[in-house]
Amino acid sequence: MPSKRKLAPKTELSPAAIKLRLLKGLRCTLQFEKKARESGAHLIAGVDEVGRGSLFGPVVAAAVILDPAYRIRGLRDSKLLLPERREILADRIRAHAIAWSIAAVDAARIDQINIYQASRLAMREAVMQLSPVPDHLLIDALRLDCDLPQNAIIHGDALSASIAAASIIAKVERDRILREWDPVFPLYGLASNKGYSTPHHIAALREHGPSPLHRQSFAPVWMNPVPQEVLGFMLDEKPEEVLEEIAVEVNEAAV
């Protein structure tokens, strides 16, 4: 009687692994740029941000107007590219794009207005810095507070070449920033984890507490048991006064 073969147990994929598998199956093309041109647009900017889920440092956004006469091969979501390939593509994008720009919102501002609004603010600032001014925006998933015609595209960095280009140069810039901060705050492994919630990073937060550049409003940061000196000034103020000051600053920024 033949022996029964034991089947290997099925391993459940993490949400991040499932998302990466989905992104790998998408094709990054110029179809959205083509539709925008058919509607009359000429200077189409792709816009994206990186660092939204990080516990440390800024969220960085980029805006890129690709030259339709020069094709940059290999553009795709920056998460799917090896670091060396991202660097090569970033150089080509900066050299051959009609225009590109980068903007960042730091951790303190993120804590004041939340990461969603900070991401939108960084993306809007990147768009406003472009010269020439775009006449149409292709944005990864979000809509921005500006009068330009725009399309919010789910998984846009995996579907639109312009958004992918923005994703790449934003990722390269943010990685550079984190590498520069790594020797200043060597306990957290920033050069390798880029501020994300790796086991080493979480363990360092539990043992040493956060640095002044950690996002104090993020749960893995404020839940650590070590006192946070950076928030010490709040101990002398009433909570409602602190919240009122933050609300004033947010309202002023929105005017």
The whole-number mean of residue pLDDT values reads: 87
**Coarse morphology:** globular
**Could you tell me the strand content as a percent range?**
5-15%
Span of the ends, CA to CA: 80 Å
State the helical fraction. 40-55%
**Briefly, what CATH class?**
Alpha Beta
Total number of helices: 11
Number of strand segments: 5
Q: Cα-atom Rg, whole angstroms?
A: 21 Å
Low-confidence runs of at least 5 consecutive residues: 229-255
> How many domain units?
1
Major beta sheet summary: 5 strands, mixed
Order of helices and strands: HHEEHEHHEEHHHHHH
Descriptive terms for the model:
12% strand; single chain; five-stranded mixed sheet; 255 residues; 5 strands; disordered C terminus; Nucleotidyltransferase, domain 5; alpha/beta; globular
Describe the model.
With 255 residues, the protein is an alpha/beta fold. The protein has a single domain, classed as Ribonuclease H-like superfamily/Ribonuclease H (Nucleotidyltransferase, domain 5, 2-Layer Sandwich). The protein is 44% helix and 12% strand. The chain has helices at 15-24, 31-38, 83-96, 107-113, 115-128, 156-159, 161-181, 190-193, 199-208, 219-222, 239-254, and strands at residues 44-50, 59-65, 99-105, 136-140, 150-153. It has a 5-stranded mixed β-sheet with strand order 3-2-1-4-5, with helices on both faces. A hairpin with an 8-residue loop joins strand 1 and strand 2. Helix 3 packs across helix 7 and helix 4 (107-113) crosses helix 5.
